[in-house]
Write a structure and sequence with these properties.
The chain is mostly helical. The protein folds into 2 domains: 70 residues, Rna Polymerase Sigma Factor, Chain: A (Orthogonal Bundle), CATH 1.10.1740; 70 residues, no CATH class. It contains 8 helices and no strands. It is elongated and about 70 Å long. The N and C termini lie far apart (66 Å).
């Protein structure tokens, strides 16, 4: 009976630590940890030399990490209001080089396709489209990106 209490405490402790660090619902985390614990009971092999609690703890951590990762939603990107810039965009676009204007035109032709990506993935997608179409070389693309970043 003492072993069962320790094992339930193990489930409770790991669920609580994930609840405390991520803010997700404790009951859901406890249920996921219990499920992982039951799977660990089925899969554990004492011949491998690992204590059951060590094995179960590791299985629960990986299960809860995957569960929490699955709950995370992509970050919403809010477009700034049109009037929030000091300089109108058409005046900025006139100062851009031809390569930079090509990049801006591609972004504005389908903005949602680029806003769904983040950081380097966004730039890589844009690079594949622009350089792949033969509109410019790699070095021109990176130079134009620096130019746009400097202005914005």
């Amino acid at each position: 009976m003492k072993n069962e209490k320790i094992e339930f405490n193990l489930i409770r402790k790991i669920a609580w630590s994930f609840h405390h660090t991520t803010g997700h619902d404790y009951d859901e985390l406890y249920a996921e940890a219990s499920l992982a614990y039951c799977e660990a009971m089925d899969d554990w092999c004492p011949d491998r030399g690992t204590k059951f609690t060590t094995y179960a703890y590791t299985r629960m951590r990986y299960a809860l990490s995957g569960y929490v990762r699955g709950l995370q939603k992509p970050m919403d990107f809010e477009m700034p209001e049109i009037g929030s810039y000091n300089t109108p965009f058409w005046e900025i676009e006139e100062t851009l080089s031809e390569s930079a204007q090509i990049i801006v035109d591609h972004i504005f032709s389908n903005p949602h396709a680029y806003l769904q990506e983040r950081g380097q993935a966004r730039r890589a997608k844009l690079r594949r489209v622009v350089v792949g179409s033969g509109a410019m070389k790699d070095w021109q693309f990176f130079q134009a990106c620096k130019e746009i970043r400097a202005i914005c």
